[in-house]
């Protein structure tokens, strides 16, 4: 599977990241506000491109302060993931748990995209106004299924129309092919609630 960080509005200059209080992320090494991807370093556990500020990247390049394997992406740190094996095991557990819990949900090939937020399927209501769904548990991670096979990062972000921090595309373990499901980590619980509403035009 692939996990990709999504920036909000990319600043015109790197320096603006340090001055902008509304930046999406922080440097994974020193935690100062930063949202510009630079260099080729990736999270040693999940492989997502690392958010490393200019100063820390330069210190690593010159050997003054090397970036260790403990410097991981915010999602891996948050979830306590320390190895690629743990990621694969976690993905498999989540997928099996979802399939087991919702085995009675059947979708036709032409059905609308489904999204899971609080363990229940949000019903598709095409002609209703977009209003944020209820999210009392503060869920920020969405499980989205039945996506078209050629859905890409840009299209999914457009559909959600809210701030996304990570996209995790789920692929078949045998073939490696994408089969229309993904996890999306939203920037906040409100972003998650509005994203569900945008996908399904769900009313409160």
Automatic annotation (TrEMBL):
Q: Which InterPro entries match?
A: Nucleotide-bd_a/b_plait_sf, RBD_domain_sf, RRM_dom
Q: Name one Pfam family in it.
A: RRM_1
Q: Which SMART domains match?
A: RRM
Q: Where is the RRM domain?
A: 140-204
Q: Which GO terms describe its molecular function?
A: RNA binding
Gene3D superfamilies in the record: 3.30.70.330
Keywords annotated in UniProt: RNA-binding
Q: What is this protein called?
A: RRM domain-containing protein
| Organism (species) | Attheya septentrionalis
């Amino acid at each position: 599977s692939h996990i990709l960080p999504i920036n909000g509005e990319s600043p015109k200059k790197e320096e603006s990241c340090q001055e902008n209080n509304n930046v999406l992320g922080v440097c994974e090494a020193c935690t100062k506000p930063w949202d510009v991807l630079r260099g080729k370093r990736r999270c040693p556990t999940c492989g997502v491109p690392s958010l490393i500020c200019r100063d820390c990247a330069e210190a690593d390049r010159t050997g003054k302060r090397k970036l260790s394997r403990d410097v991981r992406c915010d999602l891996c740190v948050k979830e306590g993931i320390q190895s690629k094996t743990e990621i694969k095991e976690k993905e498999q557990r989540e997928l099996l748990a979802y399939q087991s819990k919702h085995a009675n949900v059947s979708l036709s090939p032409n059905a609308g995209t489904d999204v899971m937020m609080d363990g229940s399927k949000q019903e598709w209501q095409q002609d209703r106004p977009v209003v944020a769904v209820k999210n009392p548990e503060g869920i920020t991670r969405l499980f989205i299924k039945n996506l078209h096979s050629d859905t890409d990062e840009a299209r999914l972000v457009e559909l959600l129309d809210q701030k996304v921090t990570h996209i995790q595309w789920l692929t078949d373990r045998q073939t490696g092919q994408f089969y229309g499901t993904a996890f999306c980590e939203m920037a906040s619980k409100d972003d998650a609630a509005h994203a569900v509403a945008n996908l399904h035009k769900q009313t409160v």
